[in-house]
Amino acid sequence: MSSEGGAEVRPGRFALGALVFGAGIGALATEITASRLLEPYFGSSTIVWANLIGVVLAALALGYWVGGRVADGHPRPSVLGFLVLGGALAVAAIPFVAKPFLDRTVQGLDQVSLGAVVGSFFSVLLLFAPPVVLLGMVSPFAVRLAVSDVALAGTVAGRLYALSTAGSLVGTFLPALVLIPAIGTQRTFLVTAALVAVSATFLLGIRYLVAAGALALLAFVPPGAVKAQAGAIHEETSLYQYIQVVQRPDRRRLLYLNEGVAVHSVWRPDSVLTGGEWDTYLALPPLLGRPLARVAILGNAGGTTARALGVFYPRAAVDGVELDPAVTRVGRRYFGLDDNPKLTVHTADARPFLRSTHERYDVIVVDAYQQPYVPFYLATQEFFRLARERLAPGGIVALNVAATPRDKRLVHALSGTLASEFPQVLEWPALRFNTIVLGLTHPLGRSELVRRLRSGPPRLASLRRLLAREARPVRPSADPWTDDRAPVEWVTDRMIVSFALHGGKLEGPPLPTMPRG
Length: 517
Description:
By secondary structure, the chain is α/β, with parallel strands linked by helices. The chain contains 16 helices and twelve strands.
């Protein structure tokens, strides 16, 4: 905006308000959408969120400081308009510029190369700093332009910061509840960039709508594969996570979630057995000393365990609890989820489901852990007490816990906490990176445990012998985890770092139930 003499005129209240509101949308929408960009590679743990929030707050603080100084030196509306337009362009660049870093991160995770993982992680986070710094400059700059009377400075600043916060609220909920589920991560960045660019036109003039239109047109560019992988036959971003299905040359199908380090479900066309951790639960029913009647699987995913139970224990009713309905849909389409007619799928979170159900189970399988991370509320005394209350007499709870050959701290913390609520707890290091922790409501002596494990489906005899040979008793922890204090991620991160520093490889021998061929 300029006068006939070339000097820029003071922008109106509406123009500045619209600009500040748009910048507020952009800053928080960038943060929320950035979390979805990171999840397929780093997951959604508290550590990831802490790093992301920390970078955004640091970028905003820098933006406030720089914005105030620039406003004092160049208090012109056009300067503020171009800063906002620059922020819009930086937001639009994020999904395209980030891909090389994310691809390198995948390689780093596959090789357990700590330098690649950490370097790529912070490189991606730094991509979000430039647009947030630019958008953070808006509020102090707008205050400088809007204040014409020092006596009204407080009123002006309060109004503009309220508008900025209102925009941030829109930027928080619009991507999370509408845009990301409807159009995906890349297009959400581009729509956000277009909205921010539109707000810049209130100071730069209507001709700059061309820039906003160009950014909106970019939203029609197909996003392509989020994580290119040989054999990928399906991928999507749900309300909760990134989902990918990969088919191997031997026709196995694997379900990956988020960072894709762990496989969450396996399907084979000719066998329900996998040689993986899903088979371990099939060895447990003989420990009951009675026919298996009802099982709860907390973390049903694609239904690998439920499918196998339908073959080896066809009379058992199974309640499969899965938080993400998109994962359940993928399970039905690619993993034979409906093969077991006795399976009932419940779309719910694990702990609220247990709290609300009136059923009593012979076996409760807790496999809702986003390996290697464990949701803290599924690792505490209070949760294990609830699980025990939902077990029938003589029932068993089984936890699938990540471990490394050198570091069993997570396993020991969980099993020790479980032992504070159950009269007998056993650790079974079934696989190199998976320990099955068992809580028994009725203790079994060694001889009785071995005797019971001699019975059961013949195809699973080798698995039961493995359990009988390797199960070890656990003492209650002197410092069990509680809902108030459960340092799950701190223990897990130390385990990961230690494993990476020792050059570990994510490989290990399968269980004896591994199908041949």
